[in-house]
Design goal:
alpha/beta, single chain, Rossmann fold, EC 2.7.1.71, 58% helix, globular, Shikimate_kinase_CS, five-stranded parallel beta sheet
Length: 171
């Protein structure tokens, strides 16, 4: 069994995932990092060249590979669980799925505070990446996150260290 971290962009999946993997003595893998490495370009560039469908196709291949692994901590891209086949691949192998829930205003603050986001990540709607986009996308995705998760952790007011401790206790 592996631990999969899901949630919206900025919820801390990669940051917490690295710490959790260290704590559990497991390997950390990030689906977005694997996609970027395989494609040789940023996610933003993949979206520009292939559109969202092209990116999601690449993502599905990576999720399928990650789902076959055990004893890993995996951070999934924010939209990875939107496809039923991705959710099925993870659940069929019995992995733990932790939803890192975070309030939209805090997500927006974190996203805006990360200089790499604008350069490497596309806007997800015509709303241009602002707080309205975060609210709208989160409203669409949250029911899917909740249907996919084994457990939920509200990370709005948690440090990465505290979130790591709570998740380790959940396991």
């Amino acid at each position: 069994m592996s631990v999969f971290l899901i949630g919206y962009r900025g919820s801390g999946k990669s940051t917490v995932g690295r710490r959790l993997a260290d704590r559990l003595w497991q390997t950390f893998l990030d689906s977005d990092e694997l996609i970027v490495k395989q494609a040789g370009m940023t996610i933003k560039a993949i979206f520009e060249a292939e559109g969202e469908v092209g990116f999601r196709d690449r993502e599905t291949l990576v999720v399928r590979e990650l789902a076959m692994l055990d004893e890993q901590v995996v951070a999934l891209g924010g939209g990875a669980v939107l496809r039923e086949e991705n959710r099925k691949a993870i659940h069929d192998r019995g992995h733990k799925v932790i939803y890192l829930r975070c309030e939209p205003e805090e997500l927006h603050r974190r996203i805006q505070g990360d200089p790499a986001t604008a350069a490497n990540r596309p806007a997800l709607s015509t709303l241009g990446g602002g707080i309205e986009e975060v609210r709208a996308k989160l409203a669409e995705r949250e029911p899917i996150y909740r249907a996919t998760m084994s457990a939920e952790l509200d990370v709005t007011n948690l440090s990465p260290e505290d979130a790591t401790v709570y998740i380790a206790r959940m396991l």
